[in-house]
Each structure stands twice: as C-alpha cells, then as structure tokens.
Design a protein that fits this description.
Elements lengths: L2 H7 L15 H9 L7 H8 L3 H14 L17 E9 L4 H10 L3 E6 L6 E7 L5 H8 L6 E8 L13
Antiparallel strand pairs: 1-3, 1-4, 2-3
Helix pairs in contact: 2-3, 3-4
Length: 167
C-alpha cells in the first residue's frame, strides 16, 4: 500500500456538518451492537440481520470516513491520581475557530467542541499529578489569545462516564 492509500484509510477530521456523510439505520444498528468493541462481527451481523462481510465493509467505511472510532475507554477516577473536567469557554467571536484549534492540541484534551448557549467552546480535559488543572489553566489555557472567561465543572461521579486515555 502506498502512502496516499494509507492516508486515504485514516479517519478524516469532521470539521463541518457538510463534511459528514449521514449514517443510515443499518449503520446505527451496527454501532449500537459494537458498544463492546471486542464483539465479533459475526455476532453483530446476526443481531442486525446482515452478513458478516456486510458488517465488516460498513464498519471499515465508517472508520475510513471518520464517522466511527473503536477505542478503549476508562473512567478517570479508576486510575489513581486522575480526574476530568468540562471546561466551558467564552471567546471573542471572530477567534472561536482558532481558539478551538489551539485547545484541541493541548495535552490532556480528550474532546473540544464549539457549542450553542452561554459558552462558545466546551473541552473535556483529563488531569493527573504531573498534568494538573492549575498547570493546564495557567500554563496553557490562559496563554491562548481571545479567551474571555472560563467556567470549570469537575467530574465527581457518573456510572457511565468514560474517556479515551490521553495522558
């Protein structure tokens, strides 16, 4: 496989709603049945009424388009010294895209999205002893021009709350 073919098979970033191919009912049925990413395609196929090859092809297509990722998740509190927070950000309107780009690159950021409502951006961030909230706020976030204010919500509990491990 040459380099361009390899790049073609990587998930593409979902930068705008227009760049996203809409998933159909069968795609969603497959995704629901892949909640456990280790579940064999043959079991998923049986559950959704398709052949194993059709499920495999659809999963590969969704992976290639960036509409699906099969990843491992962990509850941050299950790892000693770890925590997570939702950091809500108000920003200068014309700088929101640039700020989003910068936040997405920061260590510990699991996800960041522009949102509607009283905030412009919400980031989900993971912390540990070496990468503390204070360090993140003072050394990283406050240095991004155009951020007007932040409000942080630390995750206290949540039976189904899990994140990609990014630290």
């Amino acid at each position: 496989m040459n380099k361009s073919e390899e790049e073609e098979n990587l998930p593409q970033p979902l930068d705008s709603p227009e760049s996203v191919r809409k998933l159909d009912k069968l795609d969603l049925d497959i995704i629901r049945n892949l909640w456990d990413g280790r579940r064999p395609y043959s079991e998923v196929a049986q559950a959704v009424g398709l052949t194993t090859n059709t499920v495999r092809n659809r999963v590969n297509r969704m992976l290639g388009e960036g509409n699906l990722q099969i990843i491992s998740l962990v509850h941050p509190r299950a790892i000693s010294g770890h925590s997570a927070a939702f950091i809500c950000i108000k920003a200068i309107p014309r700088k929101i895209s640039k700020i989003m780009e910068e936040i997405s690159k920061l260590k510990g950021v699991v996800a960041a999205s522009t949102v509607s409502g009283r905030f412009d951006i919400i980031a989900v961030v993971m912390f540990n002893e070496e990468h503390s909230y204070n360090k993140f706020l003072e050394e990283k976030l406050q240095r991004i021009p155009g951020i007007l204010s932040t409000e942080t919500f630390f995750v206290i509990s949540g039976k189904t709350f899990q994140l990609r491990y990014v630290l």
